[in-house]
């Protein structure tokens, strides 16, 4: 009985240590499994629903030479840290949001239509939950993969995705 009384009196300490340990090991896991920007392509999609892991796996099947990983994220992924999104390589945006994010885009005029709201057809439609407006694909203005062609290669794969 005394043992249980001691354990329960120190329960808050045990919970705190467990929480700190989980945060520490999560940080270590992120450092080990992530790649530097020069070795990865990041795709940001402004859609309400996304099957990001499945789309990343599909795009990694034909990843360009020198690229370790391809990440696909919803805009909500960077909701509290918009600094990360500035280095995005590829952006998929609805027509209504292009003006708001144009500083991230290589050229507003260079957008490729990836979803047609009238016909309800588009690239990677089985992975991206498009809404009832047209969507466009842009390359990122600060992408480190503009010159080596890796961003364009992933864009081509994305446009062919079902």
The helix count comes to 4
With strands numbered from the N-terminus, the spatial order across the biggest sheet is: 3-1-4-8-5-6
CATH class of the largest domain: Alpha Beta
> What's the number of structural domains?
2
**Average residue-wise pLDDT:** 89
CATH topology type of the largest domain: D-Maltodextrin-Binding Protein, domain 2
Biggest β-sheet strands, sense, barrel: 6 strands, mixed
Content-based structural category: alpha/beta
Distance between the termini: 62 Å
Taking pLDDT < 50 over at least 5 consecutive residues as the criterion, the unreliable ranges are none
The percent range for strand residues is 15-25%
CATH superfamily of the largest domain: Periplasmic binding protein-like II
Helix content: 25-40%
CATH architecture annotation of the largest domain = 3-Layer(aba) Sandwich
Query: N-to-C SSE series?
Result: HHEEHEEEEEEH
The coarse silhouette is elongated
Query: What is the β-strand count?
Result: 8
Write down the Rg: 20 Å
Q: What topology does this entry show?
A:
Blueprint lengths: L1 H8 L1 H23 L6 E6 L3 E2 L1 H9 L8 E6 L15 E5 L17 E5 L4 E2 L5 E2 L5 E5 L10 H11 L2
Parallel strand pairs: 1-3, 1-4
Antiparallel strand pairs: 2-7, 4-8, 5-6, 5-8
Protein described:
- This protein has 162 residues and is α/β, with parallel strands linked by helices.
- It folds into two domains: 31 residues; 124 residues, D-Maltodextrin-Binding Protein, domain 2 (3-Layer(aba) Sandwich).
- Helices cover 31% and strands 20% of the residues.
- The strands form two sheets. The protein has a six-stranded mixed beta sheet.
- A hairpin with a 4-residue loop joins strand 5 and strand 6.
- It starts with a helix and ends with a helix.
């Amino acid at each position: 009985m005394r043992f249980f009384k001691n354990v329960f009196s120190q329960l808050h300490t045990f919970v705190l240590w467990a929480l700190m340990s989980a945060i520490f090991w999560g940080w270590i896991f992120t450092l080990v499994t992530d790649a530097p920007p020069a070795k990865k392509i990041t795709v940001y999609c402004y859609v309400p629903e996304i099957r990001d892991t499945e789309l990343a796996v599909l795009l990694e099947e034909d990843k360009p030479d020198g690229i370790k990983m391809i990440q696909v994220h919803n805009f909500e992924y960077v909701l509290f840290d918009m600094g990360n999104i500035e280095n995005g390589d590829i952006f998929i945006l609805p027509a209504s949001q292009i003006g708001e994010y144009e500083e991230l885009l290589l050229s507003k005029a260079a957008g490729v239509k990836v979803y047609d709201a009238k016909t309800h057809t588009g690239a990677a439609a089985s992975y991206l939950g498009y809404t009832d407006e047209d969507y466009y694909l842009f390359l990122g203005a600060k992408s480190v993969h503009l010159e080596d062609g890796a961003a364009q290669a992933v864009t081509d794969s994305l446009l062919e995705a079902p």
